Amino acid sequence: MTRVLVAPDKFKGSLDAAGVAAALARGIAAAAPDVEVACAPVADGGDGTLEVLANAGFVPVPVRVDGPTGVRLDSAYARRGDVAVVELARLVGLQVLPGGELAPLDASTVGLGQAIARAVEDGCRTVLVALGGSAGTDGGAGMLQALGAQVVDDGGAPVPRGARCLAGVRRADLAGASELLDGVEVHALCDVDNPLLGPRGAAAVFGPQKGVASDDVARVDGWLARWADVVAASVGRDLRDVPGAGAAGGTAFALLALRARVRSGAEAVLELLGLPDAVRDADLVVVGEGSLDEQTLGGKAPAAVAALARSAGVPVVAVAGRATLTPAQVEAAGIAGVHQLAELEPDPVRSHRHAAELLERVGRRIGTERSVLRSVGGGTQSSVDAPGPATAYRAAMVRTASSTT
Question: Is the dihedral of CA 366, 372, 377, 382 positive or negative?
Fold first, then answer.
């Protein structure tokens, strides 16, 4: 029996990853009832990570923290055994700003540190920090303070919260945070390689997304530079240029100061979900996200799943609300074909509103390509002279389309 693995990320603003997978699976099953369809919604370490990890045995642990602007917030981290996953977005991210009001210079990461501390106090010995969607650019200073670090001004008083307060920081002592994390393995999950400072840094690239005005970007970058100097003096290492240090408003930089390991968020989450084994057992993999673009190729979940499939010799088809990748980029990513909701509904407002219905229609289209599914099922690509699975899938799609026009 042909096995199809449906492993999409969320369609932001429309459906979460589980909803996307379910809609596609319904369509495939309706058109091809003899095909075995398995759903494996995925994430890349940003918002939505905890939801998909529920499918891998992680359970939510309630935690009450200071939100990005200091308002107390009921949230959770996820735990499986002694492994914890802490999702920044649901603790101090844009999505939990009170009233959705941006506060780029005042938002802090204190709540993230509180959640990490709680996980460690609960006995977790590995903590994966899912970065992405942060509301501020405080360089992780608030997180360090919540973990027990001393971050003080010229008078020896603790600096207040937020990026603007980095202007007054004079000294940092990370001993308290290091002591709390002694014996704990910390991983910073991110999908960017930006340094802390400069034209590709946290302020210049990600600041505007959080509401930093163009006139303030250079000022925030200067505050972060001062913070980098202070941290370098404290830990004896200059971490500002480490790839990924600029992730989540510089939170990754602070985690690096605590000797955390920076990892691809997508790869780490896929590993926790057991995707490598699931992909190897499939005959076709369906990936997807709302926008399939160049950012996708920078380590987002669809590209990571496609890479797993390519290494396993399994063809991949992608589904997106809209796709801006060139055919060459799609092929280089190991994707045989792309289905866009925009092809069915060009109005983006209606497409967002009716995403589930449109995805189900796309699923039917995939399931209707019976010759395609059969051509890749059952290990038919055994000959060393046979074309690769993606090439075979693409050719079969063309044959199917030609026969129905």
Answer: negative
For the entire predicted model, the pTM comes to: 0.87
158 and 287 co-located in one domain: no
What is the strand order of the sheet 337-340 is part of? Answer: 36-39, 3-6, 284-292, 316-323, 337-340
Number of H helices, E strands in the chain: 19, 13
How many domains, in total, are found in the chain?
Answer: 2
* Residue 194 domain boundaries: 49-266
Strands 72-80 and 59-66: antiparallel
Transcribe 92-103 into DSSP letters: HBGGGSGGG---
Are 294 and 313 a contacting pair, CB within 8 Å? no
Encoding tokens for residue 311? Answer: 């290494």
Taking only Cα atoms into account, the Rg of the chain, rounded to an integer number of angstroms, comes to 23
Give residue 390's pLDDT band: very low, low, confident or very high (50, 70, 90): low
Cα distances from 276 to residues 64, 217, 312, 339, in angstroms, run 34, 41, 9, 24
Could you report the per-residue pLDDT of 76-110, keeping only the tens digit for each? 999 999 999 999 999 999 999 999 999 999 999 99
